[in-house]
Amino acid sequence: MLQRSNIHAALVGVMAMLAACGDSQTTTQPGAGANVLAPVSVAKRKTLTERNDAQVVSATGNIESAVQEYRDLLGTLNPNAAGEQPGDRREINWDGAVVPTNTDAFPGNFFNVNSPRGVLFTTNGSGFRVSDNGYVDVNANYFGEFSAFSPKKLFVARGSTIIDIDFVVAGSNTPASVTGFGSVFSDVGDANSTTIEYFDADGHRLLKIAAPRRSDERGLSFLGAKFDSRIVAHVRITAGDTPIDAGVDDNVKGAGQKRDIVATDDFIYGEPRARN
C-alpha cells in the first residue's frame, strides 16, 4: 500500500476540525495487517478523512455535495456498456424502467447481464427487492419510513441485512477490482448498524466503516471509500440490524425490542477492471 509522509499531519488536522462540528461517530475496523483509521467526529453534511491509502467520504442530512465529492474522487462516469470503459466510475440508481420492481425475484446478476455495469449481488437471505413505493406493499407501517435520494426506487436484501458485491469486467465473468465503492442509505437510525466492508482479491479485509446516523426528516446518509490503487475485489454492505418484513417495524427509540431497518439507494463505484 502506498505511504504518504504528510498523512499524519493531515489526519490530525481533519480530526481537530471535525471534532468541533460533528455530533456522531463513524468507526473503522481494518483486517489483519491493515492500517487503522481512528474514529473521528462526523459532520452532519459531509466529512472527508484519510488513512494512508484511502479517502473516506461520509454525510448525513443534505448529502448532495458529499455524493458529488465522492463522484469526483472516483472520476468520469462511464456508459452502461460491456467491457472496460475509459472513464473511472459506474453508478446504479435502480430507477430504470426495465428494473424488476416490487418483487423478491430481482436477479443478482441484473447489472452485469441486463445492464452491464460489472457487479454481482449475493446475500445470505432469500433474495433482493427493488421498491418504488417505500416497501409499503411489504408492510403498510413503512409508509413515510424510507426516502429516496434519486427518486423513487430503493434496494434491499430480503431475509437478511447483508448485500455482498463482487466485481467483474462489465458483461463478462472476468474477475475485476475497483478503486472504491460508496452507497446512499435511507433511515439509518443507529450509528453502529450500517457498515461497508472492503476486501481484496485474497479475501483480506482492507477497511470497515460505519454510516452516520440520520440527522433530519429526509433520513439520508452517504458513505464511501476510495483507495489509492485498484485493490477492492469484494464489498459487503450491512444495512441496518433487521431486514424488512410484513410483521417487523423499525423501532430505534421506542419501547420494546430495538430494530433499525435500513434501505439502500445509489451505488457509486470505480470502473471494474480485470485483476492484474
Which key phrases capture this entry?
276 residues, 6-stranded antiparallel beta sheet, 5-stranded antiparallel beta sheet, 17 strands, 11% helix, globular
Straight-line N-to-C gap: 15 Å
Q: Using the CA coordinates, give the radius of gyration.
A: 18 Å
Low-confidence spans: pLDDT under 50, at least 5 residues? Answer: 1-46
Q: Please report which band the strand proportion falls in: under 5%, 5-15%, 15-25%, 25-35%, 35-45% or over 45%.
A: 25-35%
Please sum up the structure shown.
The chain is mainly β.
Describe the protein's architecture and organization.
The N terminus is likely disordered. The strands form five sheets. The protein has a six-stranded antiparallel sheet. Helices cover 11% and strands 31% of the residues. A hairpin with a 5-residue loop joins strand 12 and strand 13. The chain has one domain. The radius of gyration is 18 Å and the shape is globular. By secondary structure, the protein is mainly beta.
